[in-house]
Amino acid sequence: QVQLVESGGGLVQPGGSLSISCAASGSIFSMNAMGWYRQAPGVQRELVAVINSGGSINYADSVKGRFTISRDNAKNTVHLQMNSLKPGDTAVYYCTLSQRAFVYWGQGTLVTVSS
Hints:
With 115 residues, the chain is an all-beta fold. It is built from no helices and eleven strands. The strands form two sheets. Strands 2, 4, 5, 6, 9, 10 and 11 form a seven-stranded mixed beta sheet that branches. A hairpin with a 4-residue loop joins strand 7 and strand 8 (77-82).
């Protein structure tokens, strides 16, 4: 089993920055992908960014140039630095870890972008 614990969500003004992190524990294999999804009220959950253990990264078009994903393989952590935040970025952000055809989800952390 794998456990994921997110931290760092909160309220930020439009144009501001926020960083969220996720720590994974349990039975973690060296080859995996960690990432972030988000879900706003009434909207389907969507991919934000994903990074694999080799360092390859994919971003949603809506966040390219504003968000940066990074990971620490030794600590099994993944981070999302979010800059130039918009009200449309408001959502619950979920950490994910994918390995050997299984996908694990964190409980989510709320990011609210509002003045």
